[in-house]
């Protein structure tokens, strides 16, 4: 028998704060976290000097060096978010999570770039200087999932998602399926990414980055006619998913129910998205949730502020949902946090649903006529009580995800 999957905890590390109260205050100011990065002027040929960094972040000193020496910044952020989410769920330090009942499903585009540099130095200079017993552990793409498991003693299955911008949302989706089909009682799920100019260079070479270096507050501007590209950010997001029976048995507070998940692949082009398969993945999520399009009350879009991405995504959404459902993206606030975005956006979408308020698309002044004519939330936040929300992400490689959450009112 299929299990119902509920959310009993969540948290994150973002450029606008690490708690919803703090982030909500900043969202309400309708300003983003994007900054000019003067240190990036040292990189010749790099056009974009914009980023959304997390400033003044310090990893807790409560854990021993032995427990943290295999962690780079991306793993540390994922562990910070996960610790807070476990505490919120009433499971931190509980023996209940250490007997194999809780697994981990977590992703990032890559490990810590600083560790990658040490191996690049080996190949370029034929010198192992800088490489230690933990360098690879910091570099590997599954560094977050492994370090989370080790730090909190989680003995269940480990699912490592390294699928670019869908790393976090696939992490959540696969965790949902593990519980739904009875393979795990609980799952810790999400994604993380640290900001590095090497990542900016990836998109810079595709002419996909914003170069509004003198006006960081105006970018990114997803779906806007005058947008000029994406801005990268960093962070981590973690959700605690649990079998409903398990959550009720231990008296856990439930914040939402995850009722639908869809994922597929364009199988068409590595970097050029397909609106047809984007639409199909949303249809898959609706089918999984046994819902009709008109039952969705809010959609959190991927919204990277790239021309092809914005147009394909908005047209696919319009084809399925029409122009009535409120729609916005959070990337205009945090930048594109890559492997973290799906988890951060799912977390904050749940928080907004529970509050009955949804953030607008800041920097959206004039809607691109080539984008689908959606009900874009503009200028100020929208007060709305809804029962279902959808959070979508679309990644390089043509990997698409769609998650549907239900307001908890049982």
What are the salient characteristics of this protein?
alpha/beta, Peroxisomal Thiolase, Chain A, domain 1, eleven-stranded mixed β-sheet, 13 helices, 16 strands
Structure summary:
With about 400 residues, the chain is of the alpha/beta class. Helices cover about 30% and strands about 20% of the residues. The strands form 3 sheets. An 11-stranded mixed beta sheet has the order 5-4-6-8-1-9-16-15-10-11-13, sandwiched between helices.
Task: Tell me about this structure.
- The mean pLDDT is 96.
- The chain has a single domain (5-407), classed as Thiolase/Chalcone synthase (Peroxisomal Thiolase, Chain A, domain 1, 3-Layer(aba) Sandwich), CATH 3.40.47.
- It has an eleven-stranded mixed sheet, with helices on both faces. Strands 2-3-7 form a three-stranded mixed sheet, with no helix packed on it. Strands 12-14 form a two-stranded antiparallel ribbon.
- The chain is globular, with a radius of gyration of 20 Å.
- Helix 3 (73-88) packs across helix 6 (143-152).
- With 410 residues, it is an alpha/beta fold.
- The two termini are 20 Å apart.
- The protein contains 13 helices and 16 strands.
- 32% of the residues lie in helices and 20% in strands.
């Amino acid at each position: 028998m299929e299990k119902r999957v509920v959310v009993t905890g969540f948290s994150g590390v973002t450029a606008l704060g690490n708690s919803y109260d703090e982030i909500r205050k900043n969202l309400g100011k309708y300003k983003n976290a994007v900054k000019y990065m003067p240190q990036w002027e040292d990189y010749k040929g790099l056009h974009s000097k914009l980023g959304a960094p997390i400033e003044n972040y310090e990893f807790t000193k409560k854990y021993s060096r032995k427990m943290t020496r295999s962690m780079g910044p991306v793993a540390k952020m994922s562990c910070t978010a996960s610790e807070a989410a476990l505490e919120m769920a009433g499971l931190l330090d509980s023996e209940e999570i250490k007997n194999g009942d809780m697994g981990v499903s977590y992703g990032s585009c890559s490990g810590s770039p600083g560790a990658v540099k040490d191996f690049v130095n080996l190949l370029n200079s034929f010198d192992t200087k800088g490489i230690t017993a933990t360098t690879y552990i910091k570099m590997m793409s599954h560094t977050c999932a492994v370090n989370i498991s080790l730090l909190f003693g989680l003995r269940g299955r480990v699912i490592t998602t390294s699928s670019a911008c869908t790393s976090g949302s696939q992490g959540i989706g696969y965790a949902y399926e593990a519980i739904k089909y009875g393979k795990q009682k609980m799952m810790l799920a999400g994604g993380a990414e640290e900001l590095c100019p090497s990542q900016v260079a990836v998109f810079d070479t595709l002419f996909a980055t914003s170069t509004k270096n003198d006006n960081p507050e105006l970018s990114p501007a997803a779906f806007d006619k005058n947008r000029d590209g994406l801005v990268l950010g960093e962070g981590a997001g973690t959700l605690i998913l649990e079998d409903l029976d398990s959550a009720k048995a231990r008296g856990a507070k439930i914040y939402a129910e995850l009722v639908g998940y869809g994922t597929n692949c364009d199988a068409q082009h590595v970097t050029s998205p397909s609106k047809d398969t984007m639409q199909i993945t949303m249809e898959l999520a609706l089918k999984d949730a046994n819902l009709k399009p008109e039952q969705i009350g809010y959609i959190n879009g991927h919204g990277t502020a790239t021309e092809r991405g914005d147009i394909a995504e908005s047209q696919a959404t319009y084809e399925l949902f029409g122009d009535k459902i409120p729609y916005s993206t959070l990337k205009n606030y945090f930048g594109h946090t890559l492997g973290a975005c799906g988890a951060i956006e799912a977390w904050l979408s749940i928080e907004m649903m529970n509050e009955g308020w949804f953030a607008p698309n800041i920097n959206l002044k004039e809607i691109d006529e080539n984008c689908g004519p959606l009900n874009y939330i503009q200028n100020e936040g929208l007060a709305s009580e809804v029962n279902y929300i959808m959070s979508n992400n679309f990644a390089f490689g043509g990997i698409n995800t769609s998650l549907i959450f239900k307001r908890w009112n049982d």
